[in-house]
Amino acid sequence: MRMRLDQKFFSFAVPEVEWAGKHELVVERFVIDSRLVQPGTAFVALKGASTDGHLFVADAIERGATMLIIDADRRDCLNRVPAWSTKVSVAMVPSASKALFKLASAWRAQFSYPVVGITGSIGKTSTKEMLAEMIRLSGKSCVVSERNYNTDLGVALTLLQMRPEHHCALVEMGISLRGEMARLADMARPSMGVITTIAHQHMDGLGALTDIAAEKRDIFKYFKPDNIGIINGDQAVLASVSYSHPVVKFGFKTTNLVQARRISIDGMRITGVLKLYNERHAITLPMPHRGRLLNALAAAATACFLDIPHTYIVAGIQSAAAVQGRFQTVALSSGKGFVINDAYNANPESMREALFAFDRLEVHGAKIAVLGDMLALGANSSFWHRQLGRSLRKTPSIQRIIFVGEQVKAVEKTLPRGLRYQIVSSWQEAHKVLEGTLSGDEAILVKASNGIGLQHLVDRLAL
Q1: I need a surface site. Which of 194, 218, 251, 435 has the fewest CB within 10 A?
Q2: Residue 24 has what pLDDT?
Q3: Are 459 and 324 contacting, i.e. CB atoms less than 8 angstroms apart?
Q4: How far apart are CA 283 and CA 272, in angstroms?
Q5: Using one digit for the tens of pLDDT, what is the confidence trace for 204-239?
Q6: pLDDT at position 2 over 50
Q7: What is the C-alpha to C-alpha distance for residues 377 and 272, in angstroms, rounded to an integer?
């Protein structure tokens, strides 16, 4: 069934809209990048920090946009397009971004099937993708946030993809400032909420660990008494709190309703027993990363409330592919070695788990780690980077480290004696250091906050 958005519905959601141009409206998809426009698309022209979407309305029309949503005070952008009124419908509003949020909220309200909000400092995207795989294996369809589209814009675009034929919607919800989660929850109104893990992330905008947990718990802000929260039961900042709605806890502790038992980690995989409420299932994950197992528990706990049979839950755990930039294995361009691409993000907890998982890996060649700054740690940044050095004392198989950035220099005070390391300022320098020393069979872990740009290093190494 096509999504039909007429002027009556739009005007209901955004009463301040002014219309111009064509009147026929059949919108399949909303985008904020004119390069993604196809026939049937609505292009939302947003003013950003580095560019202005109103500069690209001509490109959007040329690519076949059905509708434009523009700021009313920027209507002059249409003057550059000859005969625009015969080609496209134009919604002129005081703020294109606010109109998008209002439209998404009103559209979401049309649906009664489950909307699952997924948040946490670590593991949002991996949990979402694993849960989506379980649903697909069961033969049901769902709306899933694309990649890591978890900001207010990403949430809005995801909600606008909801259709009557879907079984549910999986909406990733990320925050970096106080008050953001409450706004996202108001727009998405999730009927189920998942909090994966609370960690030291975005401390400059969210505060201490207890403050981060409080902000994340706002995913439940608009819950009704029968809505369900899925939380990490191993963390007191989540598990010891009183909730006004049902809560299911997952984790490694035996007090959790969903847990992993008899865990065995070898060089390439994790095996164990999944205790899923009152049933037990043997599982195998094709990587020695405990964080991925915790994500699997979160996904499994949620899937049960979406009526996914246990057979598909287990299959989804065991078959889910690694998400790009999250402990993802990529072959080196030459030789038999590989890169572990974990360059999307980093905080003290995820850095520690990645190092421990890398240390467990069985490889033929040398192990090298390229580690960059962990950003947004606030006033305690130096402390947390020194902790990184203490973690490296527990990873003896990692024979060489290249540190990238400024904040990571604090690690020198706590590094184990005898460890070979270098400190460089950019991914380009790291590439030069590696370029002349690789034999082709190395295993290279690459991890840092996204802003350090180590994804570019991975791209170079994997060419």
Answers
A1: 435
A2: 67
A3: no
A4: 6
A5: 999 999 999 999 999 999 999 999 999 999 999 999
A6: no
A7: 34
Which pTM value belongs to this model? Answer: 0.94
Query: Strands across the sheet with 192-195, in order?
Result: 142-144, 168-172, 115-119, 192-195, 228-232, 247-251, 258-265, 270-276, 279-285
Other beta carbons within 10 Å of 353: 21
CA distance 321 to 336: 21
Report the alpha-carbon distance of residue 85 to residue 88 in Å, rounded. Answer: 6
Which residues, other chains included, contact 455 with Cβ-Cβ below 8 Å and sequence gap of 6+? 325, 341, 343, 344
Q: At 340, list the tokens.
A: 């572990």
Q: pLDDT band at residue 73, thresholds of 50, 70 and 90? A: very high
Angle formed by the axes of helices 454-461 and 427-435, nearest 10°: 30
Q: What is the number of residues in the chain? A: 463
* Angle at CA of residue 52, ends 49 and 56, nearest 5°: 150
CA proximity to 414, closest of 447, 381, 391: 391
Mean pLDDT, all residues of the chain: 94
pLDDT level of residue 147 (50, 70, 90 thresholds): confident
- The 3-state DSSP class for residue 291 equals helix
pLDDT (average), residues 20-34: 88
Residue 446 tokens, joined = 């690459």
DSSP string, 399-422: -EEEEESSGGGGGGGTPPTT-EEE
Going by their DSSP bridges, the two strands 328-331 and 338-342 should be labelled as antiparallel
Within its chain, how far is the Cα of 174 from the centroid?
7
The answer for residues whose C-beta is within 8 angstroms of residue 13's C-beta and 6 or more apart is 102, 103, 105, 106, 107
Cα 273 off chain centre by: 27
- The reported pLDDT for the residue numbered 23 is 81
Residue with tokens 């400024």: 406
Place of tokens 């959790």: 256
| The pLDDT of residue 3 is above 60 | no
Confirm if 234 and 253 have CB atoms less than 8 A apart: yes
Amino acid (1-letter code) at residue 60? A
Please enumerate in sequence order all residues whose Cβ is within 8 A of that of 234, keeping only pairs 6 or more positions apart, or say none.
251, 252, 253, 256
Query: What is the distance between the terminal CA atoms of the chain, rounded to a whole angstrom?
Result: 42
Run of H or E including 151: none
Residue 360's alpha-carbon distances to 253, 318, 396, 398, 421, in angstroms, are: 22, 19, 10, 10, 20
Q: Give the pLDDT score at 195.
A: 98
